[in-house]
Amino acid sequence: MRSWPRFPGRTMDTNQANRKAILWLVVVFVLGVALGVVGSYAVTTRVFARGQEQHTPAAQRAHYVDRLTHELNLTEDQQKQIDAIIANVQARYDAIHQSVIPQFEQARQEGRAQIRQVLTPEQQPKFDDFMKRVDEERKAHAANGGH
Question: Strand runs (DSSP E) across 20-114, as ranges?
Fold first, then answer.
């Protein structure tokens, strides 16, 4: 068996250098993870906040008027007139939506009745519980600005 020459001073330096390199690698990795978490949080909260504010009719209208102002160089008077026109159209859209809600509800209830006919007596209460949760989620979504 061959014996390797020993360099006592050099082995210690090499081990110490390896430890330093590993330590730096760990530090860089931890900092990368931390930066990734902070960055993801910042981007997510900004995107979420921007998405929430854009769902209100007033915010949507203001955004649209701002875009038109930028693109067309609108005067203040034009901005006010266009804002009023868009508000009127939004009110008409809402009225149309409200008028068809009963038709959607009737279709929903008829579909549920048809599904219940396919289910066994044991499955029907579970389906009713499931549909109750779906209805609650839909109401919560509508309360938060969805339709």
Answer: none
In angstroms, the CA 37 to CA 116 distance is: 46
Give the residue among 75, 76, 50, 73 at the shortest CA–CA distance from 63: 50
Alpha-carbon distances, residue 93 vs 51, 63, 98, 119 (angstroms): 21, 18, 9, 38
**Could you give the CA distance from residue 54 to residue 62 in angstroms, rounded to a whole number?**
9
Q: 3: helix, coil or strand?
A: coil
C-beta of residue 106 within 8 angstroms of C-beta of residue 16: no
CA 86 to chain centroid, in Å, comes to 27
Q: CA dihedral defined by 43, 44, 46, 51, rounded to 10 degrees?
A: 140
pLDDT per residue, tens digit, the chain (147 aa), is 555 555 555 555 778 888 888 888 887 777 777 777 777 777 777 666 555 556 788 999 999 999 999 999 999 999 999 999 999 999 999 999 999 999 999 999 999 999 999 999 999 999 999 999 999 998 888 777 665
